[in-house]
Amino acid sequence: MAPPFAVAVAAVSSSSPLFSSSSSRPILRRHPLLGSISVRPRHRSAVASAAATESAGKLLLEVHGLTASVKETGQQILKGVDLTIREGEVHAIMGKNGSGKSTLTKVLVGHPHYEVTGGTILFKGENLIDMEPEERSLAGLFMSFQAPIEIPGVSNYDFLLMAINARREKDGLPALGPLEFYSVVSQKVEALKMEPKILDRNVNEGFSGGERKRNEILQLSVLGADLALLDEIDSGLDVDALEDVAHAVNGLLTPQNSVLMITHYQRLLDLIKPSYVHIMESGKIVKTGDSSLASHINEGGYKSIASFV
Amino acid sequence: MSPPSLCAAPPRAGPPPPPLLRLRRRAVSSVAASRSAAPSVSDDLVLRIAEQLEDAAPSSPLLDPLRSASALSLLTTPWPTRRSNEAFRFTDISYLRSLPISTPTRTPGLAPPTPSSDLDSHVLFSDGRLVAASGAHVSALADMPPGHARDRAAAAVAASARFSHRDIFYDFNAVGASDVAVVYVPEWAKMADDPVHIMFAYSGSDGASLMMSNPRVLVIAEKGAEVAIVEEHFGVGEEDGGCYWANPVVDIIVEEGGRVVHSYVQRQSPAAAHTKWTTVQQNTSSKYEFVEVSTGARLNRHNLHIQQLGPETETELSTFHLTSQNKQIHDLHSRLILDHPRGFSRQLHKLIACGTGNGIFDGNIQVNRYAQQTDAGQQTKCLLLSPKAVVNVKPNLQIIADDVKCTHGAAISGDLDPNELFYFQARGVDAKTATDALLFSFGAQVINRIPFKAIEKKALAQLKELLAVSRQNN
């Protein structure tokens, strides 16, 4: 089987002639740093056996030619996304506002606002498009919302307990009682340096921006996930909070599970090191590289990527 | 002493009635006279009920001024109908006419076991009769020792005879109330953390009549005093009490700088009728916090009337009504009258209507000429869970002052917020379970404002149960 990186590059070249590998070669010469990345990701090259383990990592998510539109208006947002994620990988998607990054994660988890109009999504070999949102979650997909909504009247604790018991029911385990669950959840709250009182409060009600983001990661750490889709978990977080959140996410990473994060900022990528960075534009992934692609954007903006062609 | 007769007043053996009672009898015997003299202004049904209540109510000199005034008023008040009375335009009260009225027997021999309260201060009404009142500031009006508190309470009861917004239900209560439970909190006394638990237990008669009860409570928080009351209305005995008509009145006076924390839980039997008046007078810088949870009764009508008597008052009203059975009617008519500057008020009304239930909300806020710099907010949210459920919502703000901040919003929807549902689903909880949780939370948002854990918990448990039942039925 082809290594994922090759798949991604192939996808880019097939979907966008502007970003064909041949046209990018002269630019690589002008930017030796970027060139070295594209050919052999620096992060991975540090680990001698990187390539070998990657190709051994099992396929987790395979997205091919995914197109999707807003259900109500029919406006097409995703215009042929190709993305492959294997176990143990950390991916980051960057791109301008409105390029379809958030939509991609929402479509992956089955948000009712969007309609898949074409392409395929396989998660652990199963067709994700036919699954209900809750089935996708139980299958091991987790999305942290960019703007988590408030649920007045439902306490955070009850919400988490319902979610964990839905998972346990699927696994054939007996439901946890409120008392048993407390010891599980209180550790996670502590690890995220959150106030224990956060559990008694209603879900996201009156939470600050930072509290909401931490709360999303708290849910992730309680529920676990094979693939976590983190949509701008860094926005609205101060430096310390970002470190807490990143620390929690890193703590969840194992050779078996993976993360796909959306971000605008280098700082998050310094804390959670991505194996791959994808650039999204107009509903497609137009470029894939390693973490130095992100630093390139950080310095020169998206223009600098566009100026390659 | 034998019950006073309404029509004829033959002299009977026993001590002579006090002068006030005589006056009342004269007034009431004119009721009988006018029945034949002017049938066009009097309503037979109203008079018949008034007579029955008169007959059953024991004499009580302190209540007489109020009784006389109400008896007179009932002479000329017709039974309200949807066509004749704007306040009942959407509320079908024909259930009250479906059975003849009966009054509780004077001997409580077969009374079902009465519930007990965990709280030190408590009051118990059984079928409208005041059977227990204990606590530092709690007493039956008739048992109050002579002195300032008694004079104050008696004057307040007498003054309610002049309450201009009353309707026949207020008057029925005045005529039929046997005594008044008084919660009198003297100046600067603070007891907001130690609520007075007022329990109203009701039971039906044989099922061939509606047994009518008229319990009455007066709460006075003097200057700087703080008091919390928890009102609970429920049926006892077989079938949760079965068929009865509860017609309670609670009058509350909050003096300058005082604070009243009021929780109200109505979980009457599904066959009961419940017509309730709550009147509140708020003096300067006083605070009134009210939380209502009404889930019971076939017909439920709550008139909530709040009158501002001085500037800088704070008023918080949170109410939740659930019609979980078919043909159930839940009606909240609230009126907040602001006549003084810098008042602050927040009102939230939530309503779920299932099956063929009917919810009514008329929320009136009057910001009058001198109520400048008032900050008044009102919000109502209704959920209709079936195509045959009906809600009639009439939020109305009458603003005459020109320097005010008033907001209001009314939302009626047939579905839960899809974004909220999705949030649950995204965490692995299926849509059905999420729907249950969200419906529960819709009501819990109000119930959570009850400041007393035990009461709050009980109300939440009952909500959960009723939602489960109504889902099975639909």
UniProtKB/TrEMBL annotation, chain A:
UniProt entry tagged with the keyword Lipid biosynthesis: no
The segment(s) forming the ABC transporter domain are 61-307
A GO MF annotation of the entry reads: ATP binding
SMART domains found in the cross-reference section: AAA
What the entry lists under Pfam families is as follows: ABC_tran
What UniProt keywords apply to this chain's record, in alphabetical order? ATP-binding, Nucleotide-binding
Q: Which residues form the signal peptide?
A: none
Q: What is this protein called?
A: ABC transporter I family member 6, chloroplastic
Organism of origin: Triticum urartu
TrEMBL record, chain B:
Pfam families tied to this protein: SUFBD_core
- Enumerate the spans annotated as SUF system FeS cluster assembly SufBD core domain: 209-442
GO BP terms: namely: iron-sulfur cluster assembly
Q: Which InterPro entries match?
A: Fe-S_cluster_assembly_SufBD, SUF_FeS_clus_asmbl_SufBD_core, SUF_FeS_clus_asmbl_SufBD_sf
* Segments for region (Disordered): 1-21
Know the name of this protein? SUF system FeS cluster assembly SufBD core domain-containing protein
Recorded source organism is Triticum urartu
